[in-house]
Structures are given as C-alpha cells and as structure tokens.
Amino acid sequence: MSTAPLSRKPQARIGVYVCHCGSNIAGVVDVKEVARWAGHELADEGVVIARDYQFMCSNLGQELIEADIKEQGLTRVVVAACSPHLHEATFRHACQRAGLNPYLCEMVSIREQVSWVHTDREQATAKAKALIAGGVERVAWHEPLEPLIVPINPTTLVVGGGIAGIQAALEIADSGYPVILVEREPSIGGHMAQFDKTFPTLDCAACILTPKMVAVGSHPNITLLTYSEVERVDGYVGSFQVTIRKKARYVNTETCTGCGLCIEKCPVRVVDEVFEAGLGYRKAIYRPFPQAVPKYPVIDTVHCTYFQRGKCKACQIFCPTQPKSINFEQKDELIQVEVGNIILATGYDLFDCRRIPQYGYGRLANVYTSLEFERLCNAAGPTGGEVVLRDGVTRPKTVGIIHCVGSRDSKYNSYCSVICCMQSLKFAHLVKERTGAEVYNFYIDMRTPFKDYDEFYQKVLAEGVHFVRGRVAEVTDAARHPGEEGKIIIQVEDTLIGRQRRIPVDMVILSAALEPRRDAQEVAHKFGIACSTNGWFIEKHPKLDPVATMTEGIFIAGCAQGPKDIPATVAQGAAAAARVIGRIHQTHLALEPVRASVIAERCSGCRICNNLCPFNAISFREDLGVTEINPALCQGCGTCVAACPAGAITGTQFSNEQVFAQIEGLLMLDFSGKPVRRLEPLAAAEPAFF
Amino acid sequence: MKYGYYPGCSLERNAIAYHESAMAVAPLLGIEFKELEDWNCCGATEYISLYALPAYALMGRNLALAAQQQLNRMVAPCSACFINLAKTDKYMADDPRLARLVNEALAAGGLHYKPGSVRVRHLFQVIVEDVGFEAVAARVVKPLYNLRVAPYYGCLIVRPTLQQLFDDPEYPTSLDRLLRVLGAKVVDFPVKTHCCGGHMTQISEETALELIRRLLKNAADYQADMIVTLCPMCQLNLDGYQEEVNKRFGTHYRLPVLYFTQLMGLAFGLPPNVLGFGKEFIDPTPALAKIGAEPPAPEKREHPSKEALPMPAMPRQDGGKP
Amino acid sequence: MAVTHAARAAPASFLEEVIAATPGGDPRLDRCIQCGTCGGSCPSAADMEHTPRQLFALIFAGMRDEVLRSNTPWYCVSCYFCTVRCPQDVHITDIMYTLKRLAIREGLYRESSATEAPAFAETYIDYVENYGRSFELGLATRHHLRHHPLGAIKKVAFGMELWRKGRIDLTPKRIKNMAQLSAILHKAKELEAANGRGGGA
What we know:
heterotrimer; B: alpha/beta; Glutathione S-transferase Yfyf (Class Pi), Chain A, domain 2; Rossmann fold; 2 domains; 4-stranded parallel sheet; 15 helices; 8 strands; globular; C: mainly alpha; Fumarate Reductase Iron-sulfur Protein, Chain B, domain 2; 11 helices; 55% helix; 0% strand
C-alpha cells in the first residue's frame, strides 16, 4: 500500500538523447532536428540538454549520458532510440553507474514505432517529436524505485521424468541442490525408454538411459515422485508453493521388494496403450518395463478385478512380504512443497495416424506407427525384438517407410517434426538388419542436418535401401493388377522419374509427427506460461533464450518446447539446469518493481478487482476491509488499475499521473508541428473517470 | 421439412429411377420438395473448361432464381450439380471480384444473387443431417437382410470439402451406416470415393473403363452382391459400361448398381414399380432375391491367435463407442 | 479469409497469369513444394503426359507452350483427390480448369493428344446455350460422328439400349426463359473478354 501521490508536477532536470541507430532511425527521422527541437521547445518542461548521437547504446553513447548526469545535474533521462525490449537495461545501468536511480530513465521508441513503420520523413519526424514530448512529460512524474528482492529457495521442481527432466534433475542434484522430480507414469524414462536404438550412433536407448535413471533413483538430492502429478502452483519465483498429488499405487513402497510375483499371478491382461503403444499387453498390476525406476508396481483400478467387482486379490494373496505389500485401502496423497524454480520437461505425444484414413492405419493390420515399430524392435517388447507382421509370426519381405505423416501438412501440423527423416533411416537400417527385407523409404526432402547425420544417410544408402522421392498418396489393400492381391499397396508419384508407382509391400511404417501433449494448454495455464499457436510451450526468445519463459522462475526443456532429437533435448535439460543453478547461487533475485498497489484510503472494499488478477496477486484483507496486492506476484499488467471504479489502484511506472502526463505531452503538438493550447493540468487527487 | 429441389438434367431422363425413388420415399421421411422453377443446366464439368465467368453465371442463375422463389434450402440429388452450385456460392463469398462480375452478368437477365442466401446440399446429406438415422430406421419394415452391398459415394459428395465436412473426404461412413440401418450387410469397400471416370467415357473410353474396372473389381473382391450409389453419373458409368469393361478386360462382373433411394424404398415396403426399377443394364433381380426374411446369424467373432498383436481401437461405424 | 488474388498487378510471368486466371480466392499455386501427392493420387495419371506436379514445375519454369500443349488437364476427371490431399492447399483441380481454358484460347490444345476433349465440351455447351439444358443424344451423336465415325456404330447400339430403357430423350428440352439465360451468358462472355484471358473473373 502506498501513500497518496504528488499533487503537482515535480521539478526536474531532464536530458534528452536521440539516437540515429546508424541509418535505421536517421534514414527516416530528421534526428538532428528532433534533438534541436527538444532542447528548445521542451526547455519549459524541464529539458536542460538534448543531444543526438550515432549509436546511443555504444559505450561512448552511454558515457555521454553518464557525463551529463554528473556535470549537468540531470535528475531524469529520456532516450529516444529502439524498443525498450532491447536496450532499456543498457540505459538504466548507465544511469545507475552515474548515481541516478535507474527507474528515472525513460525510453521512447522512435525506431520500431516510427522509422521502421513510416516512410514520410516529415510526418515521421513530427511523430518522433510528439513521442519524445510525451516521454519528457511522463518522466518528470517517475519516482525512484528499488527492485524487489526475493530470496531463492534452493529446491527445484522438475516436472516430467523423460530424458530432458532426468538430465536437468541430475545436473542440479550433482551441484549439491535438492530436486523434486515429478513424473505421472509409474516409472521415469519417458519416450526414450520405449525406443530400441537411437540415431545416429545406434546406441541402445535403454543402455544409455537406464544408468541415468538409476542415478536419479538413488541420488541423495533427488526426491523422486512417480505416479504423481502437479495439482496446483501458487507463489512466485524463489518461493513457489506446489501441491502434488501422489496417486495411490495400492502398493506399500516401504515393504515391496519388487519381486514381481504379483504381476505374474494377476489374471487380468489388458492392452498396454502407453508404454507398449498399444502393441503389447500388461497386467492390471504392472510395471511399465523391467528396468522401471522405481521398481514398485501400480494397480490399474479400471481393469483390476478387485476394484471392479470385489473379487480376486491374487496379487495380495501371493505377495511374499510380511506384512503384505499390497494395500487396497491406499488413498491418493496430497503434499505441499516449496521450491524456488520449476523446470517443465513434459515431452510430446505422437500424432494420431487414424486421422489420415488413406494411410490405412487402424484398418489395415500391417500398418504401424513409429512408436509401435520401436516396440516391435525392442528386445523387451511384445515380440522380443522380432520384426514381424501383426499376426505375430510372419517376417515381412518388403517394407515401406513413410516420412512426414501428419507433419508439413496444412491439414494437420504445418511444422516439420525434425526427427522423422533420421528415424525413418534408422528404421530402414533395422529392418534390413533383422529381416533382410526390401525396404522403401518415401520422402519429400531428406533432412539430416546435425553431427554424423548425413553420414548415417550415406550408410543407409550403401545398405541397398530404395529411396523414392514422393509424398505417399495412398496405402491400400484394394488390388488393381496381378501381383497386388494380398499385399498392401503404396501408391505414390516417384517425382524423380515423373511417374505414378504402385509398390506392393507387406508392412508399412508411418513416421508420425510429434505433437504437443494433449493437456499442454492446461499444464501451461497451471504454471502461468503460454503455448504457441502450434501448442508448444513458448520460450522467452526463440533464438536467444530457448529454455526460459516469460514467467520468472519457470523454465522449459526438451520436446515440450518443440520437436527435437535427443542431443538437443539433453542440451536443453542441461541449459535449464544451469540457469536454475545460477539463480540458486545468487540466493536472491531482483524483480522489476513495476507493480500495482492499492491506495488504502481510497479502497471501498468492493472487491471487483479480486477475481481479475491473472497472477492471483490480489487478496482481500478482512481485518482491514481493503484489498491488498502481493508485489512479488504482481506482474504489472494493469488490469486491476483499469477496473477499479474508485481509482484506488495505481501502478508504479504506470500511475495515473504518469499516463496522463504522457498523453498531454503527445498532444502538445499536432502532427504538422503546430503547438496547440496546452490542457490544464489535472489535479492528481481526482479519481479516474471515463 | 420443405426444401427447394434442383433435379439437374440427368434426373429428368437418364436417372429417372433416382428421381422416382426419391419422390417415393420423401413423404415417408417428412420431406416436401418444391422444384426450382425454370432451372437451367449446371454446366457439369464442361462449361467451366471453356469459360470461367459464364460458367459461374450459368450456375448463378439457378441460385438467383432460388433466392427469388424463396427456396433458401435447396437439395440437389446429383453430386455434380450439388458441387457446382455449392462451389459457386462459396467462391462468390470468398472472391468479391467474382461476385461482382457474376452479378453484373446476372443483371443483364434482371437477376441478382447475394452469396450465402441459398444453402445447397446433396439429397443424401440432407437425409443424414436433417432426417437422421433413427427416423430412417423407424420406417424400415422389410429389412434388406443378407444383401451384401458396397456403398459407393463417388467423389463430389465428399470432395472438395468446401469447409462443410459433411463426412470424411477419404473414408466416409454415412452411407455405410444408412445401409446398415436398412438391414443390409455392408462390405468394406476401400475405393468407395474413387472416381468413376465421369465424362471420360466420351473423351477417352480406355481411361474411363479402367477406372470403372477398378471399382467393380474391388466390390467383387469383397463379395458384394450389388453397388449402391448416390450420383447419376456414377450409376450410368458402373451400370451402363459394365459389359464393355468385361469385354475389354475379360472379366465377368455382374454387379447391379442401384440408387440408395431405391433401396430405402424397398426397405420401407414400397413396391418396386414406384421406385424406378427396370431401367438398369445389369439386372438387379438375382441380387435382390437374396434378401431374406430372417436376420442373418451373428458373425462368429474370430479369436485372434495367441501370438497376434493387438490392433488399435477404431471408432465403430454405427456411431457407438469403440 | 477472402483474398482476392486477382487484384495483383498485370501478370509478369506465366505462373502469375495462371494464378490470376483462377477464380475463387487465392489458388496458392506458388506454395507448391513439389511433393508429388497430386501425381500420386491422380486416378488417370498413367494416361497423362505430365503428372500434375510435373505440369506445375513446368509452369514455374515458365514453359508456357509445353504446358498448354500437354494433355494433362484434359485427362483430369475432377475427382478432387489432389486438392483435398495437397499439404499446401493448392487448388489443383481449379488450376486444371484454368489450363484448359488457356489452352483453348491459344489453340494449343490441338497439338495435344487429347484433341477431342475441348470439342466435346464445345458441343455440350452449344446445347446449353440454345436450350438451357444438356441434350445427351445430340451431344453423343454430333461428337462421335465428327470424331470417330467408325466407332460411332458401337455408340449407336449403346444409345439404342438407353432409349429402350427409357433413359434417353430423343428431343432436347428447352427452358422457358431462354432469353434471360442468353442475355446473362452473353454479358458474362463480354465481361470475361474485357477482364483478361482465360476467365480469372
């Protein structure tokens, strides 16, 4: 809560700096004239010096400001240059070095808002002058502010136990800081645990993943919460309060030895839609795969006979521990943890190939998705690693592999899924190796950009795989010519010879697109971040800051941010971890003091603002009968400021006085440069009106 | 439910069986038709091959007349007429320059059309969307038990999608479902939206015959007794040219090709003489004789072998949960 | 969103000419990535000199004459498989109609192997422009007698069968307000000629 603001315009000594930005601004705006005008016309408003300079952001430019602050006794600075997104920090630091509070510096954008969007030199120059006049009027009302310092809790929450989350968790834990790793499946491992071999090295996925999984499971600094989900997130960077639901496994993890007898004896067999991608079975009590971390099984109550009909209990009966480790009475447990930073590494879902009926998936038995095929190849998979048709027995003699299924298509996903070409080459190699079958790869472009990727393509070329450049039109069982009966026909234009071909095969593998998780929007909302139009989590800057988000303290890593291969995923997990470790080291974080605050004397307690805050920063003080805003949670969006009917909420850096002053400044000139009569200054005690 | 009716040139004579059977079943479905006064030919695929604007103006006259006669809900039984009219409406809405020029041409005849004022749908689409499968089922008194039918949609009722998405453009199931509701056994017919060749029978008979052969072969491979269609062009090509296909390729297909309205009429207990029977090249009598009075025994569910891998769940074609 | 691509400046290339001559919103031909889905889907591709994709590549290369001489557009059956499957949303079938119109205007269709197709269309249109309806018997007779009189015998037999089954009219029907339709079509042709070749409306 702040005191009532000043009621008359403060005296100021203002320096105005107009940047040429090379020819970016000077090419359209007459910067010399603008500086001259500001120094002359705005002298009454407090401007004591106005300069123009080639590159204000350069060291020399900054030194100009610093020197003037010291020698001219400036109390306010206005820099007319590029967008504050780029150099606000630069100029604020320059002021700070010269002993001026950084929040007494205002940037006016005459590049993005003037020279980059207008071509008429006269009008652009007039607009630049108006904007600067607005900045000058406004900055007089700025108050010195101090950033909000918040402590950083050294514990980190990592959401998602795939390779991205595992990498991040291990790096932070190895640095000596505690990590809570939450994973919603019964075991960590993610999609990588489903794969057989990984490109380009053809490393066995489990062989390189399981050591990290074991490390996570046994690390003293990692609290592993599997079969758990985040329910709710409150708080802000440095102190998030997170509510986690530990779903009931119905297995007592204190006494369970992981012997697996319960699994053996369970009479209910169901299709495993998650780990086996629908290609294999599991029991109602199960571990997703043999190397699961942790080793404790879970009971799927939807299919368990006891939970559905009150009978069976075979798992409990056969459990050898004393006391029995199966506990049907177990309940979900809600726990609250406090963490300083959060890393979201929730991964991807595979495109549903049933959406492309002409590819036959779901109707034709021997059409597989990429994940199904990984399970087929995997030695721990439903066929023990045998590449066979869906009858479980027959080896294919000809296999077709289709790239870009559901990717690069305006009807499904317009983006490229990054890994499918390499994956398809890998499949080609594995099919050749295991079956000696004829293999056809159908592609539009061959995308093999990273280290050792093109060499992998060369290797597969040398293995005699047939490559057809053409996007497959149809996969069908409707035979047309002799030789097609009983086969699956791939119909495609072989664009390099310009002819339509029908190629009979026994088996088809669809390299399906990577898509955001089906609940990505929900998850984003829960953590206060956003999703792009394609549904991936949005990074702070696509090139310069891919693991941070616009929300302080929340980081993203791995495929949750967009499709990528394992090396890039690991790099992002490590990057996110490094950022977090850096934050923890700093022990405290300075938050921008751009915040709203309630003027207690004016608050009537109507509570209209209470439910408007997108950051849950507003609460009502019953004891005082007024509303209060938590400055650490507040992001300064201004929604409550606008909504308050009594004008009782003001925003630092966006107070009523500052905004009205800016408008006055803008209107001081009309756009041909003629000064108009100046509006009477509004008494600051007047409430907002419309 | 009242609809404007645009028969199109084929329904007048060549596909009069379609027209008669449609008129016969309409009252049983609560549908009342009012024929568009003085409608002209939609131009098929010919007019637009020579002229663009005149082709749209040709179709535009029909839409303008419909609006004038207050027939804002129009039904076209022929797929080509349907797509031409619907496409004209949509393109005029999407392309203001086209709309302006078409209206300038229409003005020469004292007409005007505002895009979006008339909604044209295919007869089959109206039965599915407005009448509904339940209402159709309620009228069935003589289920077509034991009759194995291949549902042939042809292209233009499902493509281009024109953002209407009536049914899937690759693998639609509404006709399958309707025929099941009539009691027939519907065979899987993967080429159900493949082209019958259209006017290629006149331009390059060889090409057309090959397209027709593919359809007949697939229906025969799946042991269909007959093919059911919803477009006069498709019916003529598959029916009228079947013998020519046999001669050219040495095949022996004898698959009658009937309109879905004819089968609906039979299932509703209407006598064949009001349903336009007797005009077919391939006699449907032997196939129709298979219709039994008793529902067929439920098919034994094949238990997959021990080694077989599970298949992904697919949506059921009767609209129930998978 | 309705985009009127026809508002582009006078076409500088054959590609732009084709785009401008295709009504119904932007046909997006310039977004083609040559993936081959159209050529792979086309039911009559085997009879075409160029697959649809190849034809578009020729358009990009500015090979106007070769494109307009090609029999490809005439073998298009308007099944729209290509249009519906194209990952870049190119209005392929509509472009085929444009190419037909352009080929006729240039007379280049005569040098393709599908010389009859335009004649068939012309005969069809003749009836529509005189009667307001199509007339199958007239159409078939005139067309086949003109183009392959020997093969016409078989067609006569077919025609007889149709007549016996009551599926063909011996005389054409005429709409009542033929004058209205004529006026409209006449005006439309005028406007088309004034606004550019090949239609493009």
